[in-house]
Protein 1
Amino acid sequence: MLIYIAKRILYTLPIMLGVMIVCFALVHLAPGDPLVSVLPPDASAQMKQQLMVLYGFDRPYYEQFLRWIVRALQGDLGSSIATNRPVATEVFKAVGNTLMLSAVATFIGFALGTFFGFVAGYFRDTFIDKFASFLSVVGVSVPHYWLGMILVIIFAATLGWLPPTGAGPGGSENWAWDWEHVRHLILPAVTMSVIPMGIIARTVRALVAEILSQEFIAGLRAKGLSEFGVFMHVVKNTAPTALAVMGIQLGYLLGGSILIETVFSWPGTGGLLNAAIFQRDLPLLQGTILVLALFFVILNLIVDVMQTMLDPRIQRS
Amino acid sequence: MLLADKASTLPPVARSPGYWATVWRRFRRDPVAMFALAVILTLVLVAIFAPYIAPQDPYKGMSLRRLRPPGTPGFPLGTDELGRDMLSRLIYGARLSLFMGVTPVIYALFIGSAIGIAAGYVGGWVNTVLMRTIDVFFAFPSVLLAIALSGALGAGITNGLVSLTVVFVPPIARVAESVTTSVRTRDYVEAARASGASAFTIIRVQVLGNVLGPIFVYAMSLIAVSMILASGLSFLGLGVKPPEPEWGLMLNTLRTAIYTQPLLCALPGLMIFITSISFNLLTDGLRSAMDIKA
C-alpha cells in the first residue's frame, strides 16, 4: 500500500512538469506580441525593447521556462501585465471563491446523484428507473450556462427571490457565512450541481444494479438479514467508486467554472480567466491555468490514494 | 457422385445477417434512440437546406423592430437585439453550431485512433512516450483546456476547432490504445501473424475490424460534450465571431435582454440542449444495440 502511494506520488511529478510545459507554451502559442496590451500604439522600438527585457521576453525559451518554473515553485507567478499586481495574489483570492462554489455544487450534485442512482438501481427497468435515468441524461446534456440563465429568469427576474449575479451584497468579493452571501450562492451552485448530479447518478445506478445481481446479496438475504442490512452492504460497496467520481467531478468543476461564473458574475478564477483572455494578459492567463491544473492533478492523486485505502480489493500495478 | 461434387451443387446456405445488420435491427426496436436519430437527421437537413427554409435573411436587421417577442406577425419567434429574424437565425445557426460541435470530434477520431492504435500495436517505449504525453493533457479539465487554448490563440472558427480537437484527442487515444492492446494478444492476431500477414494487414483487418466499433461509439458520446463546449466558447466570446448566427454566440448577445424578453433569450440555448441530449440518447441506444459496456 505505502509503496503504491509512493509510486503514485512519484508518477505525478512528470505529469506536473508536463503541465508546466503546456502552460508555458500557451503564452508562446499566442499570436502577436505578448506586450500588446501594455504598449501604446505609437510605442518606439526602444521602449518596446526595454519592456521585452523587463519581462524577460528577449531571452531564449528554455531560459525563460527555467526561470518561470523556479519562480513558480517559490510562489511567484509574475505580475499581471494589465494591473501590475502579483498574479499569485490575484489567483489565490479567486481560487477561494471558485472552490467555495464548486465544493457546494459538488455536494449538492453528490447528494441528489446518489439518491437518484440508488432509486434507479433498486427499481431497475421500472418507471422510477426510467425517470431517474432521464434526469441524469438531462444533467449531462444541458448546456449549464443556459440553465443558469433560465434559473436567473425564473428565480431572479420573475419571482425576485434570489439575486441574479455576484457573490455577496454590494459586489462583495470576500466570502462570509451569512444569509446574504448564501443567497447569492444558491443559483450558481444549483446550476453547477447538475453536471455531477447526472454523472454520479449514472455511475451509482450501474453500480447498484451490478451489486444487487451478485450472489453475496442473495446469500445475505438467505441468512435472514433485514432489507436495511442488505442496503447497508450495497452502500458500503458503492461508496469507494461514488466518492472517487465525486472527487474527480470537483476537479472538473473547479477548472470548468468559467462559463457559470460568467453568467453569474461570480468573482472567481473564471472571471480572472475572462479578464486575462480579453485583455491579452498572458502572465495572468498562464498563472491561473497553472494553478487550476495543478489543483486538478493533486485532487486526482488524493482521490486515487483514498480509493485504494477505502477499497483494499483494488490491486494496482 | 462424389460427396464434394454434391456439396457444390447444393443451394448456398442463407448468409447469417452481418454484425451491422444485427445492430441496426436491435437499434430499430429502441423508440427513444430512434426518436433521437430522427431529431438529429432533421437538424442536419435544416442545416443543409437553411437557405430554402429560412423565411428571412439572418444577417439583415432593422433597428425599428428590435427584440420583438415570439409571435410577432412576420417573425414567428421574434427578433433579436439587432432586429434580425430569430427563426431564420436559429435555422442558419444549425449550420455553424453542428459544424463546430461535430468537426472536432471527427478530427480527433482520426488523430486519436492513429495515436492510440500505434501505441497499442507497437507497445514498448513507443507506447510509453505516446501515452505519457497524452496523460499530461488529462491533467487539464476539458473545459479549462479548451478555453485556455482558444484564449491564447484568440477568437475565430479555426482556432475554436483546433482547441476542441486538442481536447478530444487524448480521451479517444486512450480508449483506442486500451482496446488495441487487448486485441493485440488475441489468438487470431497471432494466427494472422503466423500465416505471414504483414503488420499493416494485421492492423487493417484484425485490429481495425475489432477496434473501430468501440472507438466510434465513444467518439459519438463526445459529440454531446463537444456541442456544449463549442457553443460555450462562442458564448464566452471565443470561437465564432459576430455577426455569424451560432447558438452559443446568440445566447451571449441576447443575454442583455434577459429581463425584457426572457423567452427570446432562452431559444438558442434550447436548441443546444435539444441537439446535445439527442446525441446522448442516440449514443446510449447505439451502445446497448452493440452491447458495449460503460
Note: Chain A is about 75% helix and 0% strand.
Protein 2
Amino acid sequence: MSVDRAFYNAAERNRFGLLEILFWLCPIAAFFLFPTSLSFATHVLIMALFAMSLGLILSFAGIVTLGHAAFFGLGAYVTALLSLAGYQEPITATFLGGAAAAVLALIIGPLLLRLTGLPLMMVTLALGAVMFEAANKLGWITGGENGLGDLRYQPVLGIFRWSIYGQTAYFYTLAWLFALFLLTRSLVASPFGLALQGIRENPLRMNLIGAPVTGHLVRVYTISAFIAGIAGALSAQATGFVGLDVLSVDLSINALVMLVLGGVGNIYGGLVGGALYIVLRNLASDWNPYHWMFVIGAFLVVVVLLGQNGVIGIVERLTSLISGKRKETSP
Amino acid sequence: MDYLVSSLTFIAIYGVSYGMVIFLISIGLVITMGLMRVINLAHGAFAAIGGYLCTALVSSYKLNFYLAVVVATLSVALLSLIVERGIYRQIYRKSELDQVLLTIGLAFITVASLNFLFGPNVVPSQLPADLSGTVELLGRDVQMYRLFVVAVGLVVVVALWALFNWTMFGASLRAAVDNPSMAQAAGIDVSRLFTLAFALGSGLAALGGAVGYGMLPLEPLYPFKYLIIIMIVVALSGFGNMRSAAAVSIAVGVVDTAGRYFFPTYGAFIIYVFVILYLLAQIEGSPLRRKS
Amino acid sequence: MTEPALVVRSLCKNYGGFAVTRNVDLELPRGARHALIGPNGAGKTTLVGLISGAIAANSGTIELFGRDITTISAAQRVKQGLVRTFQVNSLFPRLSVFQNIFLACSEARGISQRMLGRTSGQKPIIGQVEAILELLGLSADAGRPVATIAYGRQRLVELGIALALEPRVLLLDEPAAGVPSVEVPLLINAIDRLGEDITILLIEHDMQIVQRFARTMTVLAEGQVIASGAPDVVMASEQVRSVYLGKSGHQRFESGKAHA
C-alpha cells in the first residue's frame, strides 16, 4: 500500500525527493561557484541554521519568542571564551557552546513555557535585553563593546587547517548544518513531533488527554536552544570574533523575519529564508540600512495581509498547480 | 542628611516625570490590548511620529511649541484612525504571530520613513526656552521642564479618570474591556469604540513623544528603543487594567531612575529583572508564587 | 466480588453561596449504561466536571475502581482510565482525523516522547487508530483536516479521542449536541458498538437517545438527585414527572418512548 507519509504526520512529507536533493546540492555548488566568497557563504549557512532552530519551536510547537538570540549569543561567547582559555579543539568546543545554550533553556524553560502569547514575548524580550546588557557590562569577561577577537582553533579532526580562504570553515559549518537538519527533520516526523503540533493547535486539550505539555515544550525548546547555540559557536569559529551583536534584539527579530521569508510550518522555511535574507541583504549592502528596513517592513505587512507563506508557500502552490494539471490530463 | 533629602528629591521629581512620559506613551496600548487583545509592537511609532511632527512644526514653521504639541497630538490621532480602519482591523482575528509580524513591519516602515525625512541622528530639541529654567525645590535645582511634564501627566490622568467614570464613552469602554462579547450583546458598538479608543491612545502616545523629548530624545529607532519599557508597563498593569497603568508607570519611572542613580553601572538591569520575576510569579503553580 | 467502576459520595460544589451540586451520590457498576438527565441548569455538566477533575469539589469523595481519585488532577484521572468528552468540540483543527486520534493513542501508550522513528513507523498504534476509525465509521475521512469535515463527524472524532485514551469509565457530555438530526443515528450506532468492558455515563437531553441507550438512569434537578434506578421505574415516578418533566416534557417523553 502506498499511502503518502504525510498522512501520518505532515512533517514526514520530505523524504529526499528530487527537490530536497537539489536543495542540498546548492551549498556544494556554491563552494565551486564562489570560491572567493566562502566566508560570506559560511555566514549564510550559520544564519540558515539559526533560523531553522527558531522554526523548530515556532512552526511546530507554536512558541513565539522575541529572545532567541540569547542562545545564539551564549553559544558564541562560550566557544570564544573556551578558545581564549586555551581550549581550542573545534568540534567539542562547538558542542559545548550548544550545550551551554541548552542548559540555559533547560533552566528557564520550565517557568517560561507556561506563559503564552504576549507575556511570553515580553519575558523573552526582557531576557534577551538582560543578556545583552549583562554582556555589555561584564566587559572583563566579554570584552564589552570591543568584543572578543583573534580566536584560534586547532585543525578540524587534526587534519583540516582553518585557511584564510575559509574552505575548512565552510565545510565544517555545512557538516554541522546538515547533521542538525537531519536531527530536526527526524524529530518533527516522530510521534513527539506530532505531539508538538497537537500543542500548537490546542494546548488545553493536549493537557486533558494527559500529555505533559510543559514537559514536551521544554524538551523541544532545549533542543532548539542547543541548535541556536551551535550556530553561535560556529559564527565565533568562522569569524574568529564575537561581538555584542550576537545577543542583540535585532538578531532575534531578524530570525523571525527570515523564517517568515522562507515560510512557516516547514523545516526548510528557516533554511531557505535565512539564506535568502542574508544574500538579499548583501546584494543591497550599498543601500542605506534604513532603506533595507523599509523593504523588510513592507514585506512583513504584505505577507500578513495577503496571508502568504513565504518562498515555501509559493513553491508548494506551484508544485500543486503542476501536479493538478497533470491529474487533469491523465485519465 | 542633606545629601539624602536632595537625592530623594531628585529621584522623586525625575522619576515621576519620567514615569509620566512612560504613562502617556503606554496608556493607549494598555487600553487597546485590554479591548481587542491585539499585540501591537508598533505603538511606539505613534509616539515617535508625534514627537517628530511637533519638532518639525516648531523648527520649520515657527509654530509656538505648545500649539505644536496640540496639533501633533490631534494629527496623530487622526492618522491612527485611518491606520486602524485600514490595517489593524485586518489582524484582530489573525494569529499572534501574524499580529507580531505585521506590527513589527509597521514599526520598520516608520523607522525608515523617519530616517528618510529627518536623517539618522537625534533631532535637535525644540523645547521652548522658558522650560529650560530651574526652580529650587528642597535644596535642589529642578528643571521647569520636569515640572511641566508632571503637570501635563496629571492633567491627562485626571481627564482620563473623568472620561472613564463620567461619560458614556468611558462606561462603554470599561464594559468592553471587562467582557467584549457581553458589551456587544448589550448594544455597544465595540468596533467603533475600539477605533475611538485606538485614536485616543495613539494621540496620547504622540503627546508623550512630543513633551517627553527631554527624556526620550527623538531618533529614527525610537519605536524600538523604547519598546521594552512600554511593554513592561503593559505587562505590569495586568494587560488591560487602565487604573493600575498610571501607578505602574510612575513606579517604573521611579525604580528605574533610582536604580540608575544609586547603581549607575547596573541600574538598567533592575527593572528588567523585576519584570521577569513578576511575570513568572504570575504563573499558576510557579515556585515563585508558592513562596509568596 | 468486584468493586463498582465509579462511586460518587456526598459530592458538593458551591459557587459563592450558591450550591450547584448538593450531596450527590452515584454508583456505576462495571459495564453500566447509565444516563444522567435533568432540566437545564440542573448541574449535569458541573457534575461531569467534578467527576473528571476539571472542577474541584468542596466536599465528598469520588472513587474509581475502589481508588480514591477526589484530589488528583484531570490529566491523572485520564491516565487511570476516567475519560470524558466535551459538549463543545475541542479538537486539533488543522491536523487530520487520523492525527487527532493518533495523538490521544500515543499519549495513552506513552510513546509521545519518542523523538526517534517516524510516526508512520508506529505500527501497533496505527493499527489501534485504524480500529477506532473503523468502529466510528470515520475511515473515509481519515486524511482530512478536522476543521474541514461536517460538525456531526467532528463529534465522532471527539468520541474517537476519548476511546483512544483507553477508557474504563467514559463520561459522554451531550454527544449529540449540535449534531444535525440526519447525522444523529451515526453517533447512536457508534455508542451502541462500544465494548461492554467500558462503563458509560451519558448526559443527554434527547430522550430518544436516552431511551435507546440507558439500562439505568439518574435524574438531577437543582443539583440534587431526585430519582435513580431502572428507566421504567424512574420515568414512572410522580416526582420526576412533576419536578422535571412537567406537562410539555411529559409529551416529549412519551413520544420518545414511542420511537424507542
Note: The radius of gyration of chain C is 19 Å.
